[in-house]
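Researcher: Excuse me, tokens okay?
***
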Amino acid sequence: MLEKSKVLNSEFTTDFLSKLLVDEYGLFLQTKVAYWNFEYNDVCSINSLFEIQSTKLFLINEEIGKRIIALGHFVVMSNEDFFLNTNLNEINYKNWSKQETIKKIMEKHLILKTKIEEWKSLAKNDLDKNTSLLIDKIIFNHKVMIKELKL
């Protein structure tokens, strides 16, 4: 039987991971839309960058979902959960330049990276090793994607 503190930590961690999944999925969708919007433009490198980043974000979502399951919980996300819990605003691509779109995607990476780092510092020693490694990997991936968008 699990100790009460471990159960509470698991629930706290799962709650955070579920909210993070909402934001990561939102950023995945926004990056994918950017990819589609630039697909037929003359800027192949931007299109490729958005395609690569949307793939990375998809894989992050997969890992978060699998970690929630590994912690003994279900991944529960309805459309209502998504719209009520996301920390990321929608991007309206209609009148934006490529540079504005890149800037907005980069800002969303920064928001998520900062949120994850803050949560990790609050959780400190309450995280199990595998969740801690996953969080470090996600932070690293956001740092890399931010750097890619700055180039």
Residues 28 and 57 are 5 Å apart (CA to CA). The radius of gyration is 16 Å. Confidence is low (pLDDT under 50) at residues 1-5. The helical segments are 4-38, 44-70, 79-85, 98-123, 129-150.
